[in-house]
Structure formats: C-alpha cells, structure tokens
C-alpha cells in the first residue's frame, strides 16, 4: 500500500493573492461571540432590510412554473429585456440583447472582464480607497493594480491630474466605483467628463464603471460614466446588480452592459466556469427591476437618518475624523490621532488594524481597517444595521477612544 502523500503544490498565481487583513478581525469577532460577548457587526456590506415581498413572490411563482432549469448562459431573454429597460430608464443608456450579460453577482463580471482582457504587464488604475477584492482579482490575471491615493482635499476621488500621472502605455483599464465603497464618494457628470478627456490619447484604455450602489444617494445625483461620456460607449463596461439596491446580496445576480465584443468574451468565460446564473434569482431580478421602485427612496431616507446619527456621535471624539459621504452606506473614518496611544490593557496602537482590534475587544464593535482598502490609517463601518445598533456601536467606539492614554 502506497502511503505517500500527493504533492501539495498550489498554482504560482495564488502567491499574488494577499491574505485578507480583515481575516484577523473576523476570527477575533467569532471568538469573542463564542465566549458570549455581545458583538455589533459593522463590517458587512449588506443592508439589513428584507428582500421586498413582491420580489420573493416573483421567485416563488417562477419555481412553481418550473423555471428551475438551465437558461442561456448570459441570462434569459426576459431578464435581458428587463435590464435593457432599466439601463434606459435610469441611465439613458441604450443596449441590445447582445450587449447585456447577467452573472452570479457583479463580482463575477468584474473578474471575468479582467480575465478576458488582461495579460502580464498590463495595468489597471484604481481609485483608493477601493473595494478590497479589486487588486487581487487583477493580480490573478498576471496584471498589476495601480492605486491612486487622493490628496486630502480631493474628496476620495481621482482628478484629471492624478489620472494623467498614473497612465502609462501599459494601462488597460480605468476602474471607477461611484458611489464608492468604502468612501461613499460620488462623481459628477463634469468630473467624469474631465477624466474622459484625459483618456483621449490612450485608445487602448477601457473604462469599468462599477455602479452597484447607484440608488443609495442622499445628496447630489448619480451619473454613470457611460451616461456622462456617450462617445466612449465602445470602451465602457457598465456594471450593476440587484444586491445593494434591493437587499438581495444572497441571490447573487449581477449584470452589465457593454460593447458586444467584450460581452461575448464574458459569456464564453462564463460558459466554461459557472454557466448560467441561478434561474430562480433571474426571475426575482425581473420582479425587482420591473416592480415598484418607491421603496428605494424610503430606504434611502432611513439610511440617511442612520448616517447623520452616526456622524453626530462619532464627531464627539476629537480623535476621529470623518467627512459626510453623499452616497452608499459606509463611513470611512480617519483615526490617525489614535495611533501611538495606549489601551487600558497596555498595548500601543500602531496601525488601523490595531485600532480595529481595539474597538472589537474593548467596545465589542467590528469594523474593517482602512489598510484593506488601500488607504490608512482609516476604518470603515457600515451603518446598514438596525438604527439602535448604529447609535450604540458609535457611542461605544467614542467611549473606547476616551479610554486611551
């Protein structure tokens, strides 16, 4: 009997993926909860609202009608028609069915788009602070993320000057996430047009417009890149989904519109990996996109109240700094003044990861360190939890700040 173990060698590409800095916080939160501690989780990027009933009903009706089998790889004709209507209604963007794809979440579309277009040596420009998964998805293709960290007075956004400085002959994508995670930054049409003007001399650069938080806007107006710059339609991939807008994170249904050559490539990759998105989730997405939209304004009002309350409480601490984000459901809080201070247990805070660990251990509040988003020292909290928990968590963090020396 051969007892030799198989060679436990992983592909070299995995060496480019960095361990998540949030893993430490997640493991500590689980341990403290198992010990009976009351932990308020402000680290998760999903709404606490239930998926609306008419959307749930759409899924039930589809199941009862036998819509539980494979569909076309890029989504049913009915879903694509609903997505086309949505893009026209909300963004004044015109797409044909061949320019639309539905996938297992917007994340799959982003990764497949990188996989389809990036080679070793290519570069993707990111606006820091950025969503945690962007850089590793880029590195897995052999390409390199190029993070542009904005100046303090730039509102967490790229400027024409900072974009121009980052562009090289190797640049393949400019990735824009507006409304932004984690900053809540929102680009105006004029700002997007100014960025597009910089790209005029770089015809190989594609633009990825990640619009997943489109409907969570409190001040200002959301404008998609493709809407602001229609002349660049043949270079723009517009990504969206139902997760954030309709409280459907677990349904895993994202979609995109873009040039036919790129959408065709995404469908080819999808056909050899996950195949079609969940048929029942597709039916639910149709109900979401074609059903009543008034709930979105109601949810925004509730989230705005939570945001304003959280801001008022956090600003009671002279050691925390936070701007008022006009969109999304996060606060990206500066904590530089906490560094160098000592906890009641005698530990000196040396990084925003230390700060996040301290809040979890001392206050029982889980937040994500800014290092995960490419910008330190900050931490991100999601106010997408119950109103009373938002207030209590912020009060506990302010109290914990006051206990440092």
What does the secondary structure layout of this molecule look like, with pairings?
Blueprint: H1 22-34, E1 40-41, H2 53-64, H3 77-91, E2 100-103, H4 106-117, E3 123-127, H5 133-140, E4 144-148, H6 160-166, E5 171-177, H7 189-198, E6 206-210, H8 225-228, E7 236-241, E8 254-257, H9 260-271, H10 279-290, H11 294-314, E9 330-334, H12 352-363, E10 365-366, E11 368-369, E12 378-382, H13 387-402
Parallel strand pairs: 1-10, 3-4, 3-5, 5-6, 6-7
Antiparallel strand pairs: 2-8, 7-8, 9-12, 11-12
What does this structure look like?
Residues 38-395 form the Aminotransferase class I/classII large domain. Its cofactor is pyridoxal 5'-phosphate. One of its GO terms (biological process) is amino acid metabolic process. The protein is α/β, with parallel strands linked by helices and 405 residues long. Helices cover 38% and strands 13% of the residues. The protein has two domains: 12-41 and 295-402, Aspartate Aminotransferase, domain 1 (Alpha-Beta Complex), CATH 3.90.1150.10; 53-290, Aspartate Aminotransferase, domain 2 (3-Layer(aba) Sandwich), CATH 3.40.640.10. The strands form three sheets. A seven-stranded mixed β-sheet has the order 2-8-7-6-5-3-4, sandwiched between helices. A three-stranded antiparallel β-sheet has the order 9-12-11, covered by helices on one side. It has a two-stranded parallel ribbon with strand order 1-10. Helix 1 runs parallel beside helix 12 and helix 12 crosses helix 13 (387-402). The mean pLDDT is 95.
């Amino acid at each position: 009997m051969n007892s030799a173990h198989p060679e436990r060698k992983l592909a070299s590409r995995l060496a480019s993926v960095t361990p998540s800095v949030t893993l430490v916080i997640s493991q500590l939160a689980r341990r403290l909860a198992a010990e009976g501690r009351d932990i308020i989780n402000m680290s998760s990027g999903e709404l606490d609202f239930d998926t609306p009933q008419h959307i749930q009903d759409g899924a039930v009706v589809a199941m009862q009608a036998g819509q539980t089998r494979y569909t076309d790889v890029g989504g049913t004709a009915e879903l694509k028609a609903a997505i086309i209507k949505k893009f026209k209604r909300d963004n004044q963007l015109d797409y044909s069915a061949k320019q639309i794809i539905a996938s297992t979440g917007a994340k799959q579309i982003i990764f497949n788009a990188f996989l389809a277009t990036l080679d070793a040596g290519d570069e993707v420009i990111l606006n820091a602070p950025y969503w945690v998964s962007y850089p590793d998805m880029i590195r897995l293709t052999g390409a390199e993320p190029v993070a542009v960290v904005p100046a303090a007075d730039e509102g967490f956004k790229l400027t024409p000057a900072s974009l121009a400085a980052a562009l090289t002959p190797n640049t393949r994508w400019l990735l824009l996430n507006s409304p932004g995670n984690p900053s809540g930054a929102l680009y105006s049409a004029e700002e997007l047009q100014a960025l597009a003007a910089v790209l005029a001399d770089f015809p190989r650069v594609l633009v990825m417009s990640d619009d997943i938080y489109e409907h969570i806007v409190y001040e200002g107006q959301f404008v998609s890149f493709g809407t602001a710059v229609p002349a660049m339609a043949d270079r723009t991939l517009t990504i969206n989904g139902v997760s954030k807008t309709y409280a459907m994170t677990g349904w895993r249904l994202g979609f995109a519109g873009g040039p036919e050559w790129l959408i065709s490539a995404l469908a080819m990759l999808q056909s050899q990996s996950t195949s079609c998105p969940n048929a029942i989730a597709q039916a639910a997405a149709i109900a979401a996109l074609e059903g009543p939209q008034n709930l979105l304004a109601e949810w925004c009002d509730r989230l705005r109240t939570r945001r304003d309350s959280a801001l008022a409480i956090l600003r009671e601490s002279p050691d925390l700094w936070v701007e008022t984000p006009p969109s999304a459901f996060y606060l990206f809080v500066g904590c530089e003044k906490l560094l160098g201070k000592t906890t009641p247990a005698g530990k000196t805070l040396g990084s925003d990861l230390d700060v996040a660990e301290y809040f979890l251990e001392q206050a029982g509040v889980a937040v994500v360190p800014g290092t995960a988003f490419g910008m330190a020292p900050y931490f991100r909290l999601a106010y997408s939890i119950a109103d009373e928990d938002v207030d209590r968590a912020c009060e506990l963090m302010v109290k914990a700040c006051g206990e440092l020396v």
